[in-house]
Amino acid sequence: MSVHILGGSQTDFAVNWHRAGLEYDALIRAVLEETLTAARVDVADIGVIHVGNAFGQLFTGQGHLGGMPATVLPELWGVPASRHEAACASGSMAALAAMADLESGRYDCALVLGAELEKTVPGDQAAAYMGAAAWAGHEAIGTDLVWPTQFAEIAAEYDRRYGLDATHLRAISELNIGNARANPLAQTRNWRYTDASFSADDSANPPVAGVLRRQDCSQMTDGAAAVILVSDRFLERRSDFRPEHHAVIAGWGHRTAGLPLAEKFRVSAAEPYVFPHVRNAVLDALSRAGLADIHQLDGVEVHDCFAMSEYLAIDHLGLTAPGESWKAVESGEIGRDGSLPINPGGGLIGIGHPVGATGVRMLLDAYKQVTGQAGECQLPDVNRYATVNIGGSTTTVASFVVEGAQR
């Protein structure tokens, strides 16, 4: 049985909902209304709801967000719903759970929603809250900047194994922020930068941790994204949905490792890849989609919470040999006009990273690309598009392959 994407929506990631005096109810109501309109389904069609959210209790004191859709849309009262947490991969876990529900035959129409409010506290406190997705009290001790520290350590590990030039990280950041200029929902679309912003100038691009600088880091973001997933059975009953308006999730991969980053390095010490489980998640998705390699794709959304996470995604995708991601950066392969464009809408660095929403936003952008609805971010002749979403120091990995529908 195939799982189809009928459509979805994303809120404007430049909006500071807390500053506007708005909470999760307003955020989720907004994305729900837009999603139902975009997917052209009635609220009565929804049989199950899966919500991705990582840090609701920490940033807002609000947990139990599986109950928020019914709170803001009374027609959903009684529809089964659950919340999923896997750090930055929370949204992808919600999507995988919805797919399993549809494939099992329990339901035929699922709402998948990811949401996060992160601007409720000062930046240093926000960074400390997010540290809960590492092995708390056991790693990155003595700093609130847990994730810059962890990804700086990944950069250092790459440097030890293969060599690493930080100018390639800055080039990734500049590319993604440049791509975001054309994205009307991107957090950074109107931010101002100079050439020095992507240099080693300590004033224009201050050091954060290790080789990572400010523009190498995604920013705290408020936002939500949602998609409607349906089964073949749903479409058989609804002949009014034309193929160009929906897409198919052709393949998926999901792998999980232990929490400690140092242990990940130890386990992979004799392996060609720093994170073999990331590579395997990508291969699982490609295999399930019937694809031989990454070059059969037309584009990819990867998880650039830091420029270093995109750098590691490039070689783990198989676009280059292990440790040679720099070649794809220098050659322009990952640019909008390259052989495999990556993050043409801006990625997490350019679009923003409301943690629980990111995996769903990636899936939505994949859907838009294969259905020709990506606006100014649209790539030419897209038939297959993938996502790679990670949580923590790659502890949780999910990958999807989305294809244009044929029926």
Helix content: 25-40%
Count every helix, treating DSSP H or I runs of 4 or more residues as helices: 14
Which whole number gives the mean pLDDT? 96
Alpha-carbon distance between the two ends: 13 Å
> SS-based structural class?
alpha/beta
> Tally of extended strands?
11
Structure described in brief:
This protein has 407 residues and is of the alpha/beta class. It contains 14 helices and 11 strands. It has a 9-stranded mixed β-sheet, with helices on both faces.
Question: What's the structural blueprint in terms of helices and strands?
Answer:
Elements lengths: L2 E8 L13 H16 L8 E5 L3 H5 L7 H5 L8 E4 L5 H15 L4 E8 L6 H8 L15 H16 L4 H15 L26 E3 L2 E2 L9 E9 H6 L9 E10 L4 H7 L8 H13 L11 E3 L4 H11 L7 H7 L15 H5 L3 H16 L13 E8 L4 E9 L3
Parallel strand pairs: 2-3, 2-4, 9-10
Antiparallel strand pairs: 1-7, 1-8, 4-7, 5-6, 8-11, 10-11
